[in-house]
Write a structure and sequence with these properties.
The protein has about 475 residues and is α/β, with parallel strands linked by helices. The protein is built from 16 helices and 18 strands. The chain folds into 2 domains: about 120 residues, 3-Layer(aba) Sandwich (Rossmann fold), CATH 3.40.50; about 350 residues, 3-Layer(aba) Sandwich (UDP-N-acetylmuramoyl-L-alanine:D-glutamate ligase). About 35% of the residues lie in helices and about 25% in strands.
Amino acid sequence: MNRKKNKIFVSGNFNILHPGHIRLLKFAKSLGKVLVVGVTSDKLAGKAAYIKQSHRINNIKNLDFVQKVILVRSLKSTILNEKPNIIVKGKEFRYQTNIEEELTKKINVELVFSSGNINYSSENLLKNELFENQIEFHLAKDFIKRKKINIPKMINNINKIKKLRVCVVGDVIIDEYINSNVLGASNEEPCLVLNPISSEKYIGGAGIVASHFSSLGAKTYLFSVTGKDQNSRFIEKELKKNKVGFHLYKDIIRPTTLKQRFKVRNSSLARVSYLSEESISIKVQNKIFNSIKKIIKKIDVLVFSDFNYGCLPQNLVDRLIKICKENKVLISADSQSSSQIGDISRFKNTELITPTEKEARISLKSNNDGLVVLSTKLQRLSGSKNIIFTLNAEGILVFNMKNKKEYSVDRLPALNNNPKDVSGAGDSLLVMSTAFLALKSNIWEAALAGTLFASLQTSTIGNRPIKLSEAKKLMKKLQK
């Protein structure tokens, strides 16, 4: 039998498309020319259908290697109508009674069980996602009481975010999550051997900061630099989808920044980054500055989203801060230092900066100072009125300079007790805290709003724009 000219049939409930499904379907496609996927109807699946059949069908249709998707109301009738040459089932069905076996002689079809060691279950994954691992939010009642926070006022402010006009400047990034299977240890060298199964790309860096603002309803502009490549087109597509007004300046000598995370069961085993750390040219700096200068009287907020990949040279930062001060535009900044080295203190006299403890210590060259001392030193160096230190699982430390002599410090615990992916937490915190400060909230309200927003972001895998309705729903829980 010439398999490459055959019709291949696979059926199932497909409640969620997990890596096990992708591997099964790709294995099936490798056996023939036409892959037909049958999705069991809600009625036939019964209680095993956790998601409506229309959604399950659409998910399969989005796979470009599937040629045909059909609704299965009767598996036997469907197979007899389709007359496939090969039926593929998962390895776990090999020793079970299969209705397909009685059809193998009737229509001369071959039943093949896929090989592989990945054991995923849609039912288990859904139960894990929807029930066992529900987001457990700590509602910070002590902090709310201590700071006399008015929750109805905060909810009202969320509705006002749509009035803001925001400009985001910085490094735009693509985060790619590559779900993999560990094949084992290499015999040739001391390393693990991974088999990539599926991947998902998300817009990150300044791109997700701008997308968050836009998703909350703010009129948003993004200024950044990309390479002239396929990844740049992906960013443009995502920004259009997220309704962000963008100005991306193409640089042919640098790649669009791409960060790949190889993950096995939600744990990262390795990261690979494609990037340039060279500063953008004076010519491109002038283009960015002049473009922002044209709209400076139309914006309320300017956010520096700095990943230290060359988009924000000090000269450009200083010029933008100066023009913002002249036009009374609120400024906030984040400068991330993970694999790279940055300096959050270079963003002078802003309304807010949001460093991690490590980033603050890098900036101050201090390993021994306590957090309060660290805060006062960073405030003197940067001139920022407010500082929010992100402390990972321990929450945040909030520093507010009341006047030249007085300051106030308080701590807010992490609100999501069961985070799934913390990579976008800092961006989310920066967005909502900045928005609240722009709406004349005090720093304590802004910090609480930012932490709530970050808790939503960490409840899912990958960066995604958080919707206004999600933020409002969670904030209303604070009233209970």
